[in-house]
Amino acid sequence: MDEHQLYDANGDESWTDGFGNPLYAESDLESEDEEHLEIELEREDNEHPQIELENEDGMVSDRYLLDVMSNPALIRNVALVGHWCHGKTEFVHAMMSYVHHVSTLEQINERRICTPYTRIYSDTRLSYRLHLASLILSDNDSTSYLCNILDCPGHVDFSDEMTFALRLADGAILLVDAVQGVMVNTERAIRHAIQKCIPIVLVINKVDRLITKLKLTPKDAYFKLKHIVETVNDQIIAASSTTGNSEVIDPALGNVCFASAKDAWFFTLQSFAKLKVTGNQEIDAVFVVDTGFTDMLVHHILSAKDAAIRKVEHIYTGPKNSTIYKAMEDSDSTGPLMVNVTGMYIHSGVLGRVYSGKIMTGHTVRVLRAEDKLNELMTVKVTKLWVLQACCKIPVSKATPGSLVLIGGVDDAIENTASLCNLESDEDAYKFRLLQFNTFPLVKIAFSLLNGWTLDDISEGLRKIIRSYPIATLRVEKSGVCTISGTGELYLKFIMEDVRQISLDKKGMIIKLNSYRGTFFLCGQYLGG
């Protein structure tokens, strides 16, 4: 601290702006993740001879977004991971408010960028779905990049969604609450990312609460932030003992960002150092959004084009000397089509990443599922393609390598992950590797239908629900009782809420929860059931 630093009557340090003026912050201890239902927001994709950076509302135009999307060197695919209620979804909303030139979540909703809360989210205040936000962000050199941010649920019950996100991403944004620090699911996220050879950058969120909640002095706040960085590095080094990848986190390197999603500001040391005051010029005691976050992604996360070499090596099962393998390594848009699809949304489609070729609406593609043999042929027609901006879906006619898109028309042929390729090719396409989850479906719930209804009446909807939950399993007993397995009580609660939603269309249908009992034996000894 400099000579302008103030001290209170007790001799304790207080926060000043460097000119002797005390900084005041509104004390607000409430800060939660925010989650919204996805809705379809159709926009006209008109052909314009000139690409406009912004439309009449001051928002980045769809045409400009699609133009940047066609260049994989300008794409950064990142998964936003961390512990639950550390503010990941709120951080995405802050980024959206920055991109779309609005200051509050209410203004975001007015522009139809996000949607109202769902009832079940209002009850739990918990994200339970993977959401993709494709945002155009500029770095310090005013170069525009397409940042595909995969917002992952932070609760341990929904870690299968994080597995989906890491399969699609080239880097991980680890978000940590400045007050709570590194928590259990933070450690799980670090280990999972390291196992997948995914580089990590750090965002320390809710820095404002060091003042408003903990009432820390500047010196104590420094040591609090320093401890978080050191703890994250300890976890990275421990997780890297088997992989050999131990790139450390260091604010001096530019891979640590400090943020307050609630107040919509974030910066790195490098970006903050560019704020200069000359002579008697004063600077307002307020933080503003700058390019530090984008610079961090650009310099520490590989582009979709550069990351394809490592990505393909880890997830593709085909020979390395094949034409398809070479096309995926080069992100060749003129090569054979190869798309890895993972996450599925009920009534919407599947989320996939294009590695080579072009996927277009109206084209028939071949589906390679995990359970299929190479000589088995299943074909589907791509009906729609969308670019996602959180809950807003922008329809597009094609997608090129490096892109993350929502694909419609193929969800009936896919269980949880599959490969899409050309219907006809000069050589055989191979599958992408199966997903390796870091949790297991050990908790079960059983239910049956009353008033003359049977499971056959909701079989189609039930199948879509189970497929949208990656690790869930379903079993139907001869008695008509349906048993669903999941990772935890909360996981099953959300599944049953979706089951109730499809039963609303069936007049008089009643869902009855059944007692589920099991019998356990240890060394031939009966333990009870």
UniProtKB/TrEMBL annotation:
Record's keyword annotation contains Nucleus: yes
Predominant location category: nucleus
GO molecular function, one term: U5 snRNA binding
One Pfam family recorded for the sequence: GTP_EFTU
Tr-type G domain boundaries: 73-298
InterPro entries: EFG_III/V, P-loop_NTPase, T_Tr_GTP-bd_dom, Transl_B-barrel_sf
GO cellular component, one term: U2-type catalytic step 2 spliceosome
GO annotation (BP), single: mRNA splicing, via spliceosome
Keyword Nucleus: yes
Location relative to the cell: Nucleus
Protein name: Tr-type G domain-containing protein
Organism name: Capsicum annuum (Capsicum pepper)
